Amino acid sequence: MFDLDDLYQQVILDHNKNPRNYGKLDASSHDAEGHNPLCGDRCRVFVKVEDDRVQKISFDGEGCAISRSAASVMTEAVKGLTLAEIEKLFKEYQDMVMGNEGDGDSSEVLGKLSVFAGVREFPIRVKCAVLAWHTLKAALSSEDESITTE
């Protein structure tokens, strides 16, 4: 039988050990750095935007398995999306991990990101799961300061 907890663990472990889009993107048009002082996670997101759409994205940094895997899955999810689509996806994702889901089924919108729903059971880990997203938002808005989850 399908067990969401097993899938959650498999995705976290896979993306932690083999992160997708990991490393500096030399041709980036936007980048930002984020830090989660509570856990010690550090993340830098590099994005190449053309015609209001993410053409390329990567990340680097050090962090716990949730932080690293969430960044990896995020890069796969947002590649090719418009900035407006990313904003909507970010809100859906944040609502899901914080347990603020509305009446609708966000799993269809979130796709593979849905595996991070289990993070809401561990409130201290929510900041790990959203660090890369906040860093991406800072990069896209061209914020010069390093962002923090505190």
Task: Give an overview in words.
By secondary structure, this protein is an alpha+beta fold. It has one domain: Alpha-Beta Complex (Sufe protein. Chain: A). The chain has five helices and four strands. It has helices at residues 4-17, 65-78, 83-98, 107-110, 123-140; strands spanning 30-36, 41-50, 53-62, 147-148. Strand 1 (30-36) and strand 2 form a beta hairpin. The radius of gyration is 14 Å and the shape is globular. The mean pLDDT is 89.
Poorly predicted residue ranges = none
Return the string of H and E elements. HEEEHHHHE
SS-derived structural category: alpha+beta
Q: What is the alpha-carbon Rg in Å?
A: 14 Å
The CATH architecture name reads Alpha-Beta Complex
What is the total number of structural domains? Answer: 1
| Overall number of strands | 4
Shape: globular
